[in-house]
Amino acid sequence: MSIPVLLFASYADAFGARRIDVPVDSPCAVADLISAMRVLPGGHVLPKEPLVALNQAWVTSSHPISAGDEVAVIPPVAGG
Amino acid sequence: MSIPVLLFASYADAFGARRIDVPVDSPCAVADLISAMRVLPGGHVLPKEPLVALNQAWVTSSHPISAGDEVAVIPPVAGG
Amino acid sequence: MTAPMTAHTPATVETAGSPQPEAPHAPYAAIVEAPIDIPALMARVESSGVGAISLFVGTVRDLNDGQAVTGIDYEAYQPMAELELGRIAREAATEIPGIRVAIEHRVGTLRVGEASIVIVAGHARRAPAMAATQRIIEVLKQRVPIWKREHYVSGERHWVDPTRC
Amino acid sequence: MTAPMTAHTPATVETAGSPQPEAPHAPYAAIVEAPIDIPALMARVESSGVGAISLFVGTVRDLNDGQAVTGIDYEAYQPMAELELGRIAREAATEIPGIRVAIEHRVGTLRVGEASIVIVAGHARRAPAMAATQRIIEVLKQRVPIWKREHYVSGERHWVDPTRC
Fold first, then answer.
1. How confident is the model at residue C164 (pLDDT cuts 50, 70, 90)?
2. Do D161 and B58 touch (CB under 8 A)?
3. Contact D147 B72 (CB under 8 A)
4. pLDDT (tens digit, 9 = 90+) per residue, B7-47?
5. Among B10, C1, C67, D10, which residue has the least CB neighbours within 10 Å?
6. Which residue of D has its CA nearest to C134?
């Protein structure tokens, strides 16, 4: 399947888009998605454990991803 | 000599004035002034060690008072 | 190009004017594009039972890590940032009973001196009000998906990565 | 009758608009009779080098020690109170290099919800700004000759004595 992933700030710059579709096997966990993103152009910017939000809440790398989830891979936050 | 003393808030209410003249022997320390005030009408409100300011700065009970000093005997403060 | 996402309706609902001052206060949290109206934000926590209001205001300064800064672009994952701000405010309300919280984080391009974040906390007493603003700004910097790109005098612009400090 | 003493010129001189943002900031401290203008007080600490502003606002609340309060008379030994506020601000500036401080304490009769004290501290960084407001309000409550007389629903009025709490 293909997972649409939202990107922001430095990640949007690196991948050249604010949203990309990432091909993954099903079933898929967050870690699998990140592995698939690393080989894409721009994937070198991802740290060892990038921040990931699923449906606008933080999740860890073992969390499963289902079709229809809103997935965001998130650069180091710098609010305030 | 006679020392003019500024009073505020609950002390002004107790002594019935915002300024009183207190007769003291010369030389005089803060503690002597307080002793003289205790026997005046209203003097019962004074705690064991009332706050005293001389020329608008805090002083302790052993501090000498000179003619011309601005003396204030100050109720417990409650600013803020 | 990474323009900031637009800000819409706040994710949390402000409290209705209640006749009971002791009613729990629904925290207010929003991502905004306009300059933050600090008196209006303060008014959201005012109540006859409040004796202390603590505010934290984060502003853009002209120097960071030794580099002269001329402005900052703030970008947010807007809907999640607003949700997360609201969660942080509600967590503070759970841990500090009686606290009243209002938060706005601005996005877009800010000049030096402009406020990017304002946190307001009201309480009957001083210590809980001050503890709330301190707690909220620290958690916010860890958890809210917002980024900033500094503009330097040289014309360069870089996204700030606090994990590299 | 114990009417509040009148407030005149602030005892400390505000800083002139300096072209050097790193120049030390002369703290501002005043006793005032009019409602405190919080944005104007904030403006006194703003500077291009400031990244964090912490504010503490003390307000009159409707309940104290279980009694319903309808208002408070604040009285000051005005010239000494202003001097002492200025001393406290300068002590903070000595202990926290780079801090910019502005303080106003209001006197007269205040209604529930009105601000009696506003302390503003600006700094390049968050922690010193927050530490300054906290330190100043605590010292102020110990050292500044100001008193308050609460008005109760019963019509009674009593001077507050914190040493009896």
1. confident
2. no
3. no
4. 999 999 999 999 999 999 999 999 999 999 999 999 999 99
5. C1
6. D130
- D with B: touching (≥3 Cβ pairs within 8 Å): yes
**A37 contacts A30 by C-beta, under 8 angstroms:** no
* C25, C29, C35, C97, C107 from C83: Cα distances, Å: 17, 8, 20, 21, 15
C124 half-sphere exposure, CB direction, 13 A CA radius:
12
Output the pLDDT for position C10. Answer: 44
Closest residue on chain C to A59 (Cα): C143
Asked if the Cβ–Cβ distance from B77 to D141 is below 8 Å, we say yes
Question: Which pLDDT value is given to residue B34?
Answer: 98
Q: What ipTM was estimated for this complex?
A: 0.91
Closest chain C residue to D42 measured between Cα atoms? C57
Touch C-A: 3+ C-beta pairs under 8 A: yes
**SS3 assignment, position C142:** helix
Exposed / middle / buried, residue C165 (Cβ in 10 Å: 0-12, 13-18, 19+):
exposed
Lowest-confidence segment of A57-71, D2-16, D33-47, D74-88 by average pLDDT? D2-16
Q: What's the rounded Cα separation, in Å, for the pair C90 and D164?
A: 36
Strands (E) across chain D are located at 28-32, 52-59, 63-64, 67-76, 100-106, 108-111, 115-123, 146-152, 157-159
* Per-residue model confidence as pLDDT tens digits over D1-15: 333 343 444 444 344
Phi, psi of C58 (to 5 degrees): -95, 130
Is B78 in Cβ contact with D146 (below 8 Å)?
Answer: yes
- D105 contact B CB<8A: yes
What pTM was computed for the model?
0.90
C-alpha span between B52 and C112 (Å, rounded)? 47
Q: Render pLDDT for D145-164 as a digit per residue (tens, 0 to 9).
A: 999 999 999 999 999 999 98
pLDDT at D23: 62
Question: CB D130 to CB C59 under 8 A?
Answer: no
Instruction: Judge contact between C46 and C53, C-beta under 8 A.
Output: yes
Tokens at C47, concatenated: 């109540």
Say yes or no to pLDDT of C16 above 60.
no
Distance from CA of D46 to the nearest CA of B (A): 23
**Residue C34 burial class via C-beta count within 10 angstroms: exposed 0-12, middle 13-18, buried 19 and up:** exposed
* Cβ contacts of D77 on chain B, cutoff 8 Å: 6, 8, 53, 56, 72, 74
Mean pLDDT score, D18-24? 50
Query: Which residues from C are below 8 Å from D133, CB to CB?
Result: 54, 130
Taking the CB of residue C123, how many other CB atoms lie within 10 A of it?
26
Q: Are D133 and D49 in contact (CB under 8 A)?
A: no
Closest residue by Cα to residue D72 from D147, D154, D164: D147
pLDDT of D83 strictly over 80: yes
